[in-house]
Design a protein that fits this description.
214 residues, mainly alpha, Serine Threonine Protein Phosphatase 5, Tetratricopeptide repeat, elongated
């Protein structure tokens, strides 16, 4: 009896998983005409197309391209609102958290930007790039204790983390004595998010060359 119940439950779970997959695929298929049209237009014209598409089909790629178009047009308020609405519909998609954080930073809302980075880490604690950006935010905001705590967490994960060593070297006479200045400068200089995330090309999505990341 138990075996029959288990098999029935497994069959139902498999069916639901299959149906969920089909729904996701159909959403992207329905989004295709709008994304193909918007891809050839300027930012605000494309945004109008994606808004029209969302009235008919609520898909992750339409939300993403709409938020990106607002970013490209410099309309950060609309980009933030779109990303937040997308997160309500698709809370498992980290990409919308990135978009929101990027728009907050570009609009100089630094407190909210820092909070957005903390939200990403709460969802994805292993994301060291975001942790580094949060460390930089704490330093810029003068939040010394939070910066030191974050740096120590980074060193526990990776004892050779140069961003954390560089910061702690400034705060700790001990580390300043044992960590040479040149040792903290070996990492190649690079800035994260010097450009917004890439725009979706629906052909890449449908051909399997690109998938919307969680």
């Amino acid at each position: 009896m138990r075996r029959k119940a288990y098999c029935a439950a497994a069959a139902i779970a498999s069916a639901l998983l299959f149906l969920s997959s089909c729904v996701t695929e159909s959403l992207e298929e329905l989004s295709r005409p709008y994304i193909q049209e918007g891809y050839r237009l300027s930012a605000l014209d494309a945004a109008a197309v994606y808004e029209e598409g969302l009235e008919n089909v609520e898909s992750p790629s339409l939300y993403y391209n709409l938020a990106y178009s607002y970013l490209e047009a410099g309309d950060y308020d609309s980009a933030i609102q779109t990303a937040e609405k997308a997160l309500e519909a698709f809370p498992e998609y980290l990409r919308f958290m990135y978009l929101r954080a990027y728009a907050l930073r570009e609009s100089h809302r630094y407190y909210s930007y820092g909070k957005a980075l903390e939200d990403i880490l709460a969802f994805d604690p292993g994301n060291e790039d975001i942790r580094t950006m949060l460390l930089e935010y704490y330093v810029a905001a003068g939040r010394e204790e939070a910066a030191k705590e974050t740096a120590m967490e980074m060193l526990l994960r990776n004892p050779g983390n140069t961003a954390a060593l560089r910061l702690l070297r400034e705060y700790s006479p001990f580390l300043s004595a044992i960590v040479p200045q040149e040792e903290t400068q070996k990492e190649e200089e690079r800035r994260l998010w010097t450009e917004p995330p890439v725009l979706f090309d629906i052909l890449d999505v449908l051909d399997g060359r690109f998938s919307l990341p969680l």
